[in-house]
Amino acid sequence: MDKPLNQIIQNKVADFTFVGQKNIKVVDEVYEEDSYWKQLFKRIAKNKGSVFGFIMITLIAFMALLGPVISGYDFDEQIAGHESMAPRIPVLENLGVFDGSETLKTSTGELVVNKYETIEGGEEVYHWFGTDVLGRDLFTRTWIGTRISLYIALVAVIVDVFIGMSYGMISGYYGGKVDNIMQRSVEVLNGIPNLVVVTLLIIVLKPGLMSITLAIAITGWIGMSRVSRASMLKLKESEYVLAARTMGAKDISIMYKDILPNIFSQLLIMSMFSIPSAIFTEAFLAFVGIGIPVPMASLGSLISENFKSLTTHFYMIVPPVLVLALLMLSFNLLADGLRDALDPTMKEV
Amino acid sequence: MKKYILKRIGMSVATLLVIVLVLFILMQLLPGSPFNDERLSIEQQQVLMSKYGLDDSVPVQFFRYVKNMLTGDFGKSYTISKNTDVSLLLQNRLPTSLLLGGLSILLGSVAGLLLGVAAALKHNSLLDSMATFFSVIGVSIPSYVFALGLSYLFGFQLSWLPMLYNADDGLRAFALPAVALSMTVMATVARFTRTEMIEVLNSDYMQLVESKGVSGIQLIFKHALRNASISIITILGPLVVSLMTGSLVVEKIFSIPGIGQLMVQAIQSNDYNVILALAFVYSALYIFVMLAVDILYGVLDPRIRLAKEGANG
Amino acid sequence: MKEKVLEVRDLAITFNTSAGKVKAVRGVDLDLYKGETVAIVGESGSGKSVTTKAIMGILSNNGTIDSGEIHYTFEKEGEEVTENLLNFSKKQMRKTINGKHIAMIFQDPMTSLDPTMSIGNQIIEGMRTHYKTKKKIAQAKAIKLLELVGITDPKSRMKNYPHQLSGGMRQRIVIAIALACDPDVLICDEPTTALDVTIQAKILELIQDIQKKIGISVIYITHDLGVVAKVAEYVNVMYAGKIVEKGTVDDIFYEPKHPYTWGLLLAMPDLETNTEKLVSIPGNPPNMSHDIVGDPFYPRNKYALHIDKEIEPPLIAVSETHSAATWLLSEHGPEYSLPTELQARITRMKEEAKHYAAG
Ligand SMILES: Nc1ncnc2c1ncn2[C@@H]1O[C@H](COP(=O)(O)OP(=O)(O)OP(=O)(O)O)[C@@H](O)[C@H]1O
Ligand SMILES: [Mg+2]
């Protein structure tokens, strides 16, 4: 024993007596003081990516709601004389950026023009993201288009919850023949590339929001059905489910009342992973020319429309591309963060 | 193993048959086929019907259709190139698209694998964070956004590489589109490789291997990557799908004369025979890749390769 | 004089986790002598595996060694040298120590073999890496090793893959792998815990046999004191990242000093006590991510003193071989007597031992 310890002990001689079992803690020490949700929230908040994703999604959703209202233009309003105007933003224009001027490449060299100076009353006109070749305000159209992407995100989650979860849970719960048939069917469906399913569907139906929704409904749920089947297989042998069964509970009630509440939050988080691919499907369809019909706008159709002016008016394609990329990135980051917070060992769907 | 492969082949054939059935039904339903043309008199229609065997029973028609599809007889194009055999249209375009797709997969997988392995080995380091960051971006941003960016920057602004496809440029013509398409592949492969490698590196058997005194390249390639690769190859299927989708748009952007561009044209001009033919080609291609992946999986994983016949098929 | 092979001093290891720092090992001393077996006993999570992984240099990346030394004496190019293994880089460890001098057997044979490599190749890999042994020669030795660990038809087993073998067979393979390069120290991390009871005994026998045959030094980790009595000469009882009692087998079984050891002894089934009377230690080990003040065993200790709440007891020597970390041994400690149940148990054990010695 070293000296200091010895000295301390000398002063504590009186403490060398039995406590008398008052110290015994048979109950486990509660390590985690917070509730499940609070812990989850804390872990999510620690993940910078998911926080960024969440803030961006909120911001984009906010702009999608408010943007078209505050711009002062209608999304399908073609203003004569306002065609192909570069972005002009108050305040920033004084700094020499976004002042409405653009550089045109011509055969003789480069030429700086500012359409706001040439049109009548142009002094007072502001198009924050510019206008397209038909003279429609791109700020308004971008945020209107964002609404479609957000709607698609919602559809993706709903499809996952209603079709994917139910399919997987039923398949997993009944097992045996039912499971076998259901899984083979999924395998066949999965053997057809989405691209084919979606295009075939759209050429049969009329292009439009309804068809896109249907396309996502048909292709989007397979991943979720796998995850929920796996969760179901894990839980269906658990004691409380067996107990419920011996009490004579109906299958449907066991599935939805006893099992689903235990896995729902996890599955909901996993459904976040299908959002980016759904948004991408819509954008893809629009680019191929079978998306939302004009004059409606979606991010995909805006990119596709403005792609034609890529070399002449580059600014037109930037806002929809940027919003689309940010939205997809944010959903991916948020989904990653949520999954890591929930269960770091879980893999992607 | 034999049983496993047979089962996979059976599954593939079944899937292909289902697809052909769907295409067959669609062909009957779609408006605009010559047989639905209202300008033709009943007699004319009759002649056409018997000429094309449409008065045969439905199963007979279906099996003829299956035969036609498998022998590459996809009928004629209505609008894109009037009365040309669709197979003729495909003939020149398919190799171009396959080359583009192959290049992108190769480029993306090699880069992704390296990035993923490096990130896993230096888990929780700056390199790891950066790799993770780039792969999230790569997975999130559709390949055509990359295509637009690359085309604008290197093709238009800097004029380093051709902005539009020209067969005379040889492989140079594929540079930008292949890089654009490979971004998603790279990001996906990197992400997946990283996760798998981290899991394998933390597994019990890797500790035993290390405690034998094995290290370095031998440790990574003979044990870690070999085990990780069993799961890594399974993402090849989904990757091929996303590559197909991506190629439609990327071929349009760079105006590459491949089947993707043809598909876009066909969709926009309602050339149904071409659409159906391409749907078949895409599906067959995908099913083939999936089958190859499954077989490769079996070869790599001794648990499947050595499975007793009848058990664990 | 016995030759010391391995000497661990004041080893402390911390893990960085998302929930904060986990002090898994908090100053461990350990001695291993040539040809002998030392056991480490303790409940799950007490830091047994972490300690031995540090010796092997296979700590996971989030672990750091805060302090300590691991002196290992071995033959290097014909000369006897003693080196601090903590000064070795990972690469040096793999090249010079792992497999060649110190080998390890892990807890779960179901997961400790590489599923994609044949048994034969896994056994010869060590020899091929360290000594560049010719494949034919290595294979011949592998077959001998398989015979040694009791695998029938070793030649055809060489081509098998792990999934084709049972748990007991796999553990035998792992032992063969560990012995492939003739190490002088073998670390067995609960080698029988994951196996069926009947197979447990066989594997245990096998390890003892091998030790007798080749005179290897063994560190044997277990949470079962019953096993300890069979295999070890020395025992280290570990609790919450520290050794709380150490001594010869006789010291620990016949004159246990630490209340935790008493608990372990009482929890050990024997022929006379029926299972209903088995008392497990109340409560759970402490959460190592919290700072520990005083004796970590305090909240579970029926013999706790007031001082335990404030100051963690150091190891106090009882005899040359025996020491325990409890204030009961301090000069100021109160009078106490062993639990009667335990006293009865010890008497019984002593009689049994005499009986064996006589028979
Ligand atoms: N890589 C790691 N990261 C974080 N904590 C770890 C890590 N490895 C071990 N620990 C912690 O260190 C402590 C000791 O673990 P260790 O594996 O040594 O226990 P053990 O005594 O071997 O138990 P068992 O009998 O269950 O094998 C545990 O609390 C464990 O949670
Ligand atoms: Mg352990």
From TrEMBL, chain A:
Pfam families documented for this protein: BPD_transp_1 (PF00528), OppC_N (PF12911)
Superkingdom classification of source: Bacteria
A cellular component annotation (GO) from this entry: plasma membrane
Listed transmembrane segments: 51-70, 148-174, 209-227, 267-294, 314-335
Ranges in coiled-coil conformation: none
GO BP terms in the entry: peptide transport; protein transport; transmembrane transport
SUPFAM superfamilies listed in its UniProt record: MetI-like (SSF161098)
CDD domains registered for this protein in UniProt: TM_PBP2
Subcellular location, principal: membrane
UniProt KW keywords: Cell membrane, Membrane, Peptide transport, Protein transport, Transmembrane, Transmembrane helix, Transport
Record-linked Gene3D superfamilies: MetI-like
Entry's localization field: Cell membrane
Membrane topology of this protein: Multi-pass membrane protein
Residue ranges constituting the ABC transmembrane type-1 domain according to the UniProt record: 146-335
Family of the protein in this entry: Belongs to the binding-protein-dependent transport system permease family. OppBC subfamily.
Name listed for the protein in its UniProt record: Oligopeptide transport system permease protein
Organism (species): Alkalibacterium gilvum
TrEMBL record, chain B:
Keyword Amino-acid biosynthesis in annotation: no
Keywords: Cell membrane, Membrane, Transmembrane, Transmembrane helix, Transport
Keyword Iron among UniProt keywords: no
Cellular component terms (Gene Ontology): plasma membrane
Topology versus the membrane: Multi-pass membrane protein
Alphabetical list of InterPro entries matching this protein: BPD_transp_1_N, MetI-like, MetI-like_sf
PANTHER family assigned: INNER MEMBRANE ABC TRANSPORTER, OLIGOPEPTIDE TRANSPORT SYSTEM PERMEASE PROTEIN OPPB
Protein name according to UniProt: Oligopeptide transport system permease protein
Automatic annotation (TrEMBL), chain C:
CDD domains, sorted: ABC_NikE_OppD_transporters (cd03257)
Annotated Gene Ontology cellular component terms: plasma membrane
Entry-linked PROSITE patterns: ABC_TRANSPORTER_1, ABC_TRANSPORTER_2
One Pfam family named in its UniProt record: oligo_HPY
Membrane topology, from the record: Peripheral membrane protein
NCBIfam families, alphabetized: oligo_HPY
The name this protein goes by in its record: Oligopeptide transport system ATP-binding protein
Organism (species): Alkalibacterium gilvum
